[in-house]
Amino acid sequence: MAAMIRLFRSSSSSIALRSFSTAAVSETLKSQSYPHNPLPTNIEPKGKTVQWVFLGCPGVGKGTYASRLSTLLGVPHIATGDLVREELNSSGALSKQLAEIVNQGKLVSDEIILNLLSKRLESGEAKGEAGFILDGFPRTVRQAEILTEVTDIDLVVNLKLPEKVLVEKCLGRRICSECGKNFNVASIDVAGENGAPRISMAPLNPPSQCISKLITRADDTEEIVKERLRIYYDKSQPVEDFYRSQGKLLEFDLPGGIPESWPKLLEVLNLDEQEYKLSAAA
Q: Which PANTHER family match (predicted)?
């Protein structure tokens, strides 16, 4: 384990960071408020960086929103779930062990995740990547503490949805076995609880050429999905408290699908999509 931590520290400490000011994010988080979302009030930027973490239950959409922000801000999106799936599809030594863990709906161990993440950071450093948005890591306080030792995290975004919506989303997930793209056939319309608004999400249907090639992930059964959520709830609260105590946690209740949620997320982060697109094209 010590060797992995040293490797993680070595690869992370030399990452050159893209210039991006988090000062505006800090001011926005202090001044705005969303229902049921206590916002961080003490985010102090450490220079001009993008070093963000996305938290949230399985199926909440961490990958979707982290990937969109990654493209907008010009920093890599590093998803530990993708790292695990890449290893599962390889002939590596961990492949069989990971298959058993994932198919039972259990969390992958710290040692395995840190091993995969260390290799990913080392590869990114060699390619000259700058900054990052982490998705699905850390999942435990132990991981969060190790991450704090090796790099500074500016902001932690915790995406939230009711459990009923999460289950429906997970059961609706489909993957095209040919092109590898992700889709969702679920049409969700769930009444809000405790005064919260109704949540509606239209399906993300595949194009005609993918329809006959859709497959369901082996771990997307109702029993396994609910077990994964139970494990996540047990593990996530301490991680949320860890970052909340540092004034870095932004809890964001998703109001619906991408069309409703994306602009609101950009608003609370004080990001102008058109401004960044124009800047990137210049």
A: NUCLEOTIDE KINASE
